[in-house]
């Protein structure tokens, strides 16, 4: 069961020993938090006691007052209008804080805002566009503009109904503004310009058996703006840790991207040596001593580190598991879970947030923080 702002409820039971509310007292829903099952109510008596439904508090819905258009329909229309205004305000916020009018490191601003929204951090939440619940001089005009034909006139509303319309508009505004701010931040930070939420892939949320985005601890590189970024992150599933580093499985597509990235790194180093006047066999030797050679032999990845370790036997053949998943240089390279928002590109299909029933609960022992 869910509740909408503006709905009328009556108290059936509360375990709060200090409240003056009694069964049968009526009030208006202010907000409902479905995850915590907390129902915020403006009681007609003046109390603002919230109902902890999961702890045994109970209310019952009251029939909504009806007019020609239906009172709930009136509140829905006002709420939709507030949401439209909230989205507009969020777009202006984005322009000034992370868009064309912004200065400084907009990516860092976007990261801080998303983290603050996720943690319900008051300094961040207070900085978002919000409706002024106390100064609403345009109530009469707003009500007339956004309610269905046949709605009661503003002058005919009771004091409680006027409060309901104010709360409906403000709740629509605030919820939509916060959602649009988060969407704009995700678009800015997403390597593919997508607006999907990727907070479930943050390093501190990666668990054994769960998905993550991984890169080597060597991968951080300064971009043209001087910001430290990761050129490419690789989607995989964390299966183990090794000396505090991550071991993950990945698809053939991602494994090919890792092999290609290693070759690109070798090519960059080769060009650097050439610019320094190093060429021929000396150049080949220096590249091979610095970085492993990786290539596919059918379905098998061959990792040649003979010159890296000065060991003629340091050649590994990495076969896929029965599900076709690869562990590329696990327990050999220092891989880390990284935040997707720190990557310029992500190789692999970005997984959707898991359902609660499928979320791994065991944290990775010794999993390093990025």
TrEMBL record:
Q: What is the lineage of its organism?
A: Bacteria, Bacillati, Actinomycetota, Actinomycetes, Micromonosporales
- UniProt-recorded name of the protein: DUF4314 domain-containing protein
Family matches, as InterPro entries: DUF4314
Species of origin: Micromonospora chersina
Please give the residue ranges the record annotates as the region Disordered: 1-28, 346-370
Indicate the segments forming the DUF4314 domain, all copies: 2-52
């Amino acid at each position: 069961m869910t509740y909408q702002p503006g709905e009328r409820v009556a108290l059936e039971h509360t375990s709060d020993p200090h409240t003056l509310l009694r069964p049968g007292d009526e009030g208006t829903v202010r907000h409902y938090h479905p995850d915590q099952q907390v129902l915020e109510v403006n009681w007609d008596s003046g109390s603002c006691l919230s109902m902890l439904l999961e702890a045994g508090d109970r209310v019952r819905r009251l029939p909504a007052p009806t007019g020609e258009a239906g009172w709930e329909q009136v509140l829905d229309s006002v709420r939709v209008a507030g949401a439209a205004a909230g989205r507009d305000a969020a777009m202006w916020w984005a322009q000034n804080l992370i868009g064309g009018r912004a200065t400084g490191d907009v990516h860092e601003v976007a990261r801080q805002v998303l983290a603050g929204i996720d943690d319900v951090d008051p300094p961040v939440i207070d900085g978002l566009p919000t409706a002024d619940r106390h100064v609403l001089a345009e109530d009469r005009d707003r009500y007339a503009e956004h309610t269905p034909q046949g709605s009661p006139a503003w002058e005919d509303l009771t004091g409680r109904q006027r409060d309901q319309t104010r709360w409906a508009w403000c709740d629509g505004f605030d919820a939509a503004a916060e959602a649009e701010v988060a969407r704009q931040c995700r678009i800015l930070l997403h390597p593919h310009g997508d607006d999907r939420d990727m907070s479930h892939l943050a390093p501190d949320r990666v668990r054994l058996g769960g998905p993550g985005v991984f890169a080597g601890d060597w991968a951080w590189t300064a971009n043209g703006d001087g910001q430290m970024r990761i050129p490419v992150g690789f989607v995989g599933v964390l299966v183990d840790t090794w000396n505090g580093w991550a071991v993950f499985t990945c698809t053939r597509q991602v494994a090919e991207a890792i092999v290609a990235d290693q070759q690109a790194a070798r090519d960059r180093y080769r060009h650097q040596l050439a610019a320094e006047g190093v060429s021929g066999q000396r150049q080949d030797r220096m590249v091979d001593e610095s970085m492993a050679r990786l290539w596919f032999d059918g379905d098998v990845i061959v990792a040649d580190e003979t010159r890296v370790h000065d060991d003629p036997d340091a050649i590994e053949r990495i076969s896929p598991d029965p599900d076709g998943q690869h562990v590329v240089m696990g327990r050999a390279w220092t891989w880390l879970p990284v935040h997707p928002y720190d990557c310029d590109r992500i190789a692999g299909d970005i997984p959707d947030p898991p359902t609660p029933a499928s979320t791994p609960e065991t944290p990775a022992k010794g999993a390093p923080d990025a």
